[in-house]
Amino acid sequence: MNCYTTDLWQIGIVQAPIQHIVASGSLDGFRIKWITPDKSLTFLADPFGLWKKGVLYLFAESYDYRTRRGDIIAYKLNADLDVIEQRTVLQEPWHLSYPFVFEADNEIWMLPEGYKSGTLTLYRAIEFPWRWEKVPDFSFPCAAIDATPFYAQGKWWMFYTPPLPKAARTDTLMLAHAPHFMGPWENVLQTAAHRNKSGARMGGTPFDHDGQIFLPTQDCSRTYGGALQMLTLDPQRLLTPEFAASVRLEVPASAAPFIAGMHTLSGVGDVTFIDAKRHLKGSPQRLWVDLQRRIQKWIS
After folding, report:
1. Glucosamine inositolphosphorylceramide transferase 1 N-terminal domain spans which residues (predicted)?
2. Of the chain's two ends, which shows fewer C-beta atoms within 10 Å, N or C?
């Protein structure tokens, strides 16, 4: 992103299971309800969800160009998928995104991306969905980007992208495993499990289908988060992984003007969350915000 092009994202709720979307091979024809930010120069991306007591909750990155930082926001939805309550639930001095939420050991956990902190931090819900606390006993080999846990074959697996080198952030997929989601975590391979700019960085929730594990990954070959490339993996070969490209999904034309990219496909029961991007060219407000930041940096 630069001061002349402002990437803006919004979140879509697709009224279909993730398996149906992948089987269709396209988002065209599916009903989508969109959630947009409340103010200018902000965006919503990286949606993940969880059903609790018959209520659907949505978690996402809320980014503000004024602070150049993302926080984690939570939404409570009603039966019509309308937002009935929303709050910011996680804020740190560093950027947060990709709030992967999951249930394990009768509790609810969140594993957001925050690699600029220098570590991967696990959070526990102490008052779901509004209050969370850090879990000090959790540790991971690196400050993983878009870490995505998955339980299979009697153990936990973590698909993630390393923070360094910088080029790896869009073309490298690593895989780690552990007997428990708290660890100890160990990389399956010392090198990348998969490397391809057209599909390696995680972009949503893995799922089992037809005897294969399906992984939503980002196609960054033309632009960051340009589309979703599904990878498949034999669950019997997790220790010697070989990935194959499957369906490629693009944002539907019905999302216009948000048709510049899509980088999340997140299944939660009978609905699926996506995000969609647009490019805003030459925004005077963005230019003014960046100018103010540079002046403040100069005088300080």
Report:
1. 42-233
2. C
Q: Rounded CA gap, 142 and 85, in Å?
A: 35
Q: Which domains does the chain have, with CATH numbers?
A: 5-299 (2.115.10.20)
5-9, 37-41, 167-171, 277-281, range with greatest mean pLDDT: 167-171
- The pLDDT tens digits of the residues spanning 247-267 come to 999 999 999 999 999 999 999
Model pTM above 0.70: yes
pLDDT in tens, 61-76: 999 999 999 999 999 9
